[in-house]
């Protein structure tokens, strides 16, 4: 009954990325270039893995899916951010905001699960190389893929349904350049207790659970590498997982700051936005560079694709 005295919010106003209106055109050009780099960096890797038969292995299948997730993740945020940079009033509809939340949550969890599965793949390849074909056969890969999508779908729909049950009566200013759960929950005029509980549960089981699984996998990998007698053998074995380890380090260091150490005071909003910009644009841009520059098979496939496109 009390909600009838309020006007229901149908759109949100975003604070934007920077508080410098005179530099919006400069920022638009910069982030358009960065977003282009994300797409043009990840898309060729997907193409190379799809059309190059030697890359039709579980490890590269996971890398291709990671590249797809990076493109989807950035595409859910950056185009709307670029649009708002050209407008004086930066708005997003309630439906658009909820859709952005859904895609962002799905992408984050998918990347989290993919990195864990890739850690397991490297563990099997290094610690049990003779049984790799048995432990990472087609059937097991399909099961891993189905399980990953099931977890992503269930988690995202639970959070989505909980947000849809919230009332937004004003204010409608999102102190961010995209929709994220903490900023949206802060604007609700109804109880967000269940939402916060589910977010906490997701952090514990998804973030901490997958982090521990990754740590366990790499603990066994490091132990196995240390048992190798020759330094050349150690270096060669470590090189097979160094790219993935670097991506994992970038991902978890950013997620850890966002989830557990991010300052909540209004005076630290610039820091919050800078960190968010890092994991929505910078990390997806670096991932293909890490995998392509440190992987001979991917570089060879990219050379063949570029060579065939020039000759045709």
UniProtKB/TrEMBL annotation:
Q: Which SUPFAM superfamilies match?
A: Family A G protein-coupled receptor-like (SSF81321)
For this protein, the record's InterPro entries field holds:
GPCR_Rhodpsn (IPR000276), GPCR_Rhodpsn_7TM (IPR017452), Olfact_rcpt (IPR000725), Olfactory_GPCR (IPR050516)
A GO molecular function assigned to this protein is:
G protein-coupled receptor activity
The residue ranges crossing the membrane are 26-51, 98-120, 140-162, 204-226, 238-261, 273-293
Q: A Pfam family for this UniProt protein? A: 7tm_4
Keyword Transferase part of the UniProt annotation: no
Q: What is its main location?
A: membrane
Recorded topology in the membrane: Multi-pass membrane protein
Reply yes or no: does the keyword Membrane apply: yes
What are the alphabetically sorted keywords of the record?
Cell membrane, G-protein coupled receptor, Membrane, Olfaction, Receptor, Sensory transduction, Transducer, Transmembrane, Transmembrane helix
Hey, which family's this protein in?
Answer: Belongs to the G-protein coupled receptor 1 family.
- What is the protein name stated in its UniProt record? Olfactory receptor
What species does this protein belong to? Gopherus evgoodei
């Amino acid at each position: 009954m009390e909600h009838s005295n309020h006007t229901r919010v149908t759109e949100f106003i975003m604070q934007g990325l920077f508080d410098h209106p005179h530099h919006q055109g400069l920022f638009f050009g910069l982030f358009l270039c960065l977003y282009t780099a994300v797409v043009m960096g990840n898309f060729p890797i997907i193409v190379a893995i799809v059309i190059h038969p030697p890359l039709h292995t579980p490890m590269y299948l996971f890398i291709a899916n990671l590249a797809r997730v990076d493109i989807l993740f950035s595409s859910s945020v950056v185009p709307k951010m670029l649009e708002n940079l050209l407008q004086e009033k930066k708005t997003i509809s309630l439906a658009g905001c909820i859709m952005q939340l859904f895609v962002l949550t799905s992408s984050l969890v998918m990347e989290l699960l993919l990195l864990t599965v890739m850690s397991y793949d490297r563990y099997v390849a290094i610690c049990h190389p003779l049984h790799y074909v048995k432990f990472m056969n087609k059937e097991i890969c399909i099961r891993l893929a189905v399980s990953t999508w099931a977890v992503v779908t269930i988690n995202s729909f639970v959070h989505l349904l909980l947000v849809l049950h919230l009332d937004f009566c004003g204010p409608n200013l999102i102190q961010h350049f995209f929709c994220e759960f903490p900023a949206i929950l802060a604007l609700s005029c109804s109880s967000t207790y269940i939402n916060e509980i589910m977010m906490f549960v997701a952090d514990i089981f998804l973030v901490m659970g997958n982090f521990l699984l990754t740590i366990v996998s790499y603990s066994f990998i490091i132990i196995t590498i240390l048992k190798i007698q020759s330094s050349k053998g150690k270096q060669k074995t470590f090189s097979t997982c160094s790219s993935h380890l670097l991506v994992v380090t970038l991902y978890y260091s950013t997620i850890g700051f966002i989830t557990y150490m991010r300052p909540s005071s209004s005076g630290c909003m610039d820091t919050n936005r800078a960190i968010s910009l890092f994991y929505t644009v910078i990390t997806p841009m670096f991932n293909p560079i890490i995998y392509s520059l440190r992987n001979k098979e991917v570089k060879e496939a990219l050379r063949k694709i570029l060579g065939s496109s020039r000759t045709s």
